Amino acid sequence: MDNETSDPPMSTSKARWIFLALNSLAVMANRVVYDQVSIFVARLTYSADACTHPDRPDYSCLDFNFVEFNGLYVGCLWAGAVGALSVGMIAPRLGILNMTGISAVLLVIGNLLFTIGPYATTTRIALGAMLCGRVLFGYAFFASMSLAQQMHCHWFHSPRNLAIATAVYFGASQLGSVINFATVGFILEKVYLQNTLWITFAVGVLGTIALVAASLIAKNYPVLSKAEVSYLISSTSRYGIFSQLLHLPTHFWLTCVIVSFFNSALFTLTADFPEFLLKNRDRPESMAALITGSIPDFAWTACLFLPFLFYLNKPLTISSAAIGLFFITLVLTAAIPKYFFPGLTTSLTGFCYAINSVSVSHAISRLVRPENTDLAISLIQASSGLGGGIFLLGMGFLLDLQSRSTTAIWTVFFAVLAVSVGAAWVCSWGSLYMEEEHNEDALRELRRKESALQIHGQAHGEEEHGPVHMTARSMSVLSGGAREKFGPLLYEL
Predict the structure, then answer these.
(1) How far apart are CA 164 and CA 462, in angstroms?
(2) How far is 54 from 216, CA to CA, in rounded Å?
(3) Taking the model in full, what pTM does it have?
(4) pLDDT tens for residues 230-283?
(5) Which of 121, 239, 282, 362 could form a disulfide with 243 if both were Cys (CB 3.0 to 4.6 A apart)?
(6) Does residue 218 fall inside a structural domain?
(7) Mapping DSSP to helix (H, G, I), strand (E, B) and coil, where does residue 237 land?
(8) pLDDT tens for each residue of 358-391
(9) Which residue segment(s) compose the domain that 140 sits in?
(10) Could you tell me the CA-to-CA distances from 158 to 224, 390, 464 in Å, in that order?
(11) By three-state DSSP, how is residue 454 classified?
(12) How many H helices and E strands in the chain?
């Protein structure tokens, strides 16, 4: 079969947008499952009025302390850090479909264990089951997000389309949070904890189906198989993963630190803010969930304007501005927690979160060479999960020190979050200085030198289409079997 003349069953242009849509549906549904825990805080710590209601008590309430409750997030985030790293290191060996299959199975098992946890006869058994479920779910959720973002970077090459794809994917994730905070709190008040968990379990299964469907499209469109070719090429070299780590630029590592400090504060605020509203502001569960939900509300809204913002082509500068605004917000909240409007805190947080997250994703193509993109995205995700887990664990101990109804403990809480974001802001200045000092653009460097895979856009008048040609030098390092397997596949981008 002549692959240079035959057409695929669907144009790649259409396929890549369908792939993006399915990935967006998957992350939206699974984000509902990920964020549901913060709404359950009062039911899981036995502090909700419904747990002791004289007429219709919620018998599925559990009696976790705050360290144990935050541990559900910590286990999820730390497992997510491992999941993100595993995608960067072993996905090329396993392939897209196999890695997605593993993630899909773990998503369902993890979600199921968390759902059946309250049926346990003791609180300890329930905690063990729910924590195991969150660990499995966290590994698979972060792995699937890293894999999706890597595939977007492979499929969308122009800055315009990559910015649009990143904003759409991130916006879908935030829309999942919006749906969670806008609906789950009200459902919880009506049908109580156990039935609510089964409803969110069904939503998670829907996301898993979409994830598998997206992977099937990726498998059928061999442009994405270039990740496997890159692995085969690199595996013939005497250098491996450690060489890639050493060749990542210093300001990329500084960006990892920035993401870790920023997201540590963000994750902690999202997890514990409902408890602040319940105990310090006397809000009902549904209202506390709705106010906290304005974080993804504004994050999702901000995504609508992000593609236009990135025409400025200064993603690190935009990221630094967002971090600075988040720092000021937390300082004001810590200084006047009794008078600062909670909705303003969450709204500004969501706005800053969207801008910073998409800015960092967009900046990766400028910070690292294309062959290191997969590893770089995995490291960014891993640093976010690792730092967030450590921070949440420490804040759990802090909130268990004294009554959470006092203003003093929450003043300290917001002050510690401000310190973390302040550290991220200072690091962002260093990253900006390094960028100006080196003035490096990985994609511009790639255009000056020969790459293992040379991409030529010509079909349909769009720069991202056209056949992918292996250079003679690249083909020479592949074994005969690898050339026979991958050479014919890489025919269209």
Answers:
(1) 16
(2) 52
(3) 0.71
(4) 444 444 444 456 667 777 888 788 889 999 999 999 988 888 888 888 877 778
(5) 239
(6) yes
(7) coil
(8) 788 777 767 777 667 777 878 888 888 888 888 8
(9) 12-447
(10) 16, 37, 7
(11) strand
(12) 20, 2
